[in-house]
Design the sequence.
């Protein structure tokens, strides 16, 4: 269901020509034009409108004279919800969240109209809407009607791009907390697709599309815990920047949200890189495995760190005994592992995690 969430204040609203895509409406109150727009464009779609009003706005002519009669005449399904004049405290913000949650359901297509918001409510309402987008899995469109007094017209501005910042915040947090860059790569790819689809730029990115798969494969390899896959994925990711100097510049120009993170991403993954995509058990490999264990510990993936630690100890023995070529020989690894203390806590902890406690 499509639901319009809108606000009315007590300021004087001038009647103007309101432009919504290819349609025009003469209205004093912007949400009335929105209602007519959706009823014209999608006449079979169920539509509900929710007006968030302060006690003063409910008694004002903007509602009583200019809005309510039109709603009744058009047989619009509407509801009013009371909000305080100022939303300056956490308690009042939580109250607004509760009011919005009362009228929203999972999967709704929500239009948040902030045209007639007042004081601090536009910012608060937008942030609340972003939260509800994630919490209720609703699709949010944020619209603002910009009034031009000289031309006596109002043009609709789509502010939905603000919601994309939340996705960048989430992807950034995932990388910082867990070291996974898959979500960042997906967002960069979305930006690249959007540029090619809608923007008439002479200098469209040429290399940006090469980021998604390396980030995806590397993230999957780190989560899976396959050393060969990690070696191949890390090298593939780093080579993308080593061989293509334009990639960093394209990120800087077209994906500014990702730009400040790139040094940290490259540095973190370089610590896991042996300089080759193939696996060779040597001092560099052993050193890199230590860094990989540190990565898992830093990202609180204790189970993965324990599993790697046991194999790391066996690899050290193989290397010292001159058996590096047998690193993937299961029988040889089992044989060498007997030199470890079979009562050690590392083995018990690793086995406990590896077998889910069984």
Sequence:
């Amino acid at each position: 269901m499509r639901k319009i969430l809108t606000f009315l204040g007590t300021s004087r609203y001038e009647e103007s020509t309101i432009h919504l895509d290819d349609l025009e409406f003469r209205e004093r109150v912007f949400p009335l034009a929105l209602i007519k727009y959706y009823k014209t464009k999608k006449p079979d779609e169920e539509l509900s409108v929710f007006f968030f009003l302060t006690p003063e706005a409910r008694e004002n002519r903007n509602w009583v004279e200019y809005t309510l009669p039109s709603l009744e005449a058009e047989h619009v399904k509407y509801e009013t919800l009371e909000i305080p004049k100022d939303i300056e405290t956490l308690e009042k913000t939580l109250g607004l969240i509760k009011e919005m949650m009362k009228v929203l359901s999972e999967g709704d297509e929500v239009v948040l109209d902030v045209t007639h918001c007042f004081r601090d409510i536009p910012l608060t309402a937008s942030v609340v809407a972003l939260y509800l987008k994630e919490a209720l899995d609703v699709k949010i469109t944020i619209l603002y009607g910009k009034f031009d007094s000289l031309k006596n017209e109002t043009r609709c501005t789509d502010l939905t791009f603000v919601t994309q910042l939340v996705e960048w915040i989430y992807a950034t947090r995932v990388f910082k907390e867990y070291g996974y860059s898959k979500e960042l790569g997906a967002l960069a790819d979305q930006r690249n697709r959007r540029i090619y689809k809608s923007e008439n730029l002479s200098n469209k990115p040429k290399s940006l599309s090469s980021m998604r798969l390396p980030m995806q494969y590397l993230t999957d390899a780190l989560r899976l815990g396959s050393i060969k896959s990690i070696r191949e994925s890390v090298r593939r990711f780093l080579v993308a920047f080593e061989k293509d100097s334009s990639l960093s510049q394209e990120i800087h120009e077209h994906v500014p949200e990702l730009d400040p993170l790139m040094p940290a991403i490259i540095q973190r993954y370089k610590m896991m890189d042996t300089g080759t995509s193939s696996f060779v058990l040597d001092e560099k490999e052993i050193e890199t495995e230590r860094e990989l264990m540190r990565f898992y510990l830093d990202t609180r993936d204790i189970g993965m760190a324990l599993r790697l630690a046991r194999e790391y100890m066996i690899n050290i023995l193989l290397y010292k005994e001159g058996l590096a070529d047998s690193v993937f020989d299961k029988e040889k690894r089992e044989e060498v592992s007997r030199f470890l203390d079979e009562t050690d806590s590392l083995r018990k902890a690793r086995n406990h995690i590896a077998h889910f406690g069984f």
Notes: The chain is about 55% helix and 15% strand. The longest strand covers residues 139-148.
